[in-house]
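Please, structure for the following, as tokens.
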Amino acid sequence: LKQLAKQPPTVVYHSLAANGMDTGDYIARSLNMGRDRLLPEFTYLDQRGIGAWDASDETIVRPAVWALDELEAGMEGFGGRPPPNEDGTPNETLHDQFTRLRQFVSLQESRTAGDIILIIFPDGTGPALLSCMIAGIPFSKCHVLEFSPGEVRLDVTPENVWDLYRQRQDDPDYLATIDAGKETL
């Protein structure tokens, strides 16, 4: 919050996930923002649907999804679809999530031009994918830029994203997660 207070957002968008709503409320209270500037986003910021893997042990599924994306997603995220589920849970590729994010950004270009926007995602992959979109990094590499819970990145530019990507691409923890996921697959 100290970082945000230096140049506070004029608009905050949050997902409808409980953690997104709670974080949005906390930030709005802390920065004395009016409720008209704290806006829910009903679809575009949703987590990626992982089909049959939904509600499975995250310590096993997360590395598997990361490895699947690394191996199959490709430049624009068309590959790497998780297995389908019989209950209707979506099984999306990174490209499916990209499409939602692109629509969100397109709306903001006309709705909030000139505003400082804070986006609260329900997970770390959404903002990482958005970072790849900004910098032109292959979507298969988006997990290199994965956000940690509560992480805030300010002044996101193509140059800053590329700098962070170069710092993290050979990170031992990231590489170990990919290797663990490959074994699970």
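The CA atoms of residues 70 and 159 lie 22 Å apart. The chain has a mean pLDDT of 95.
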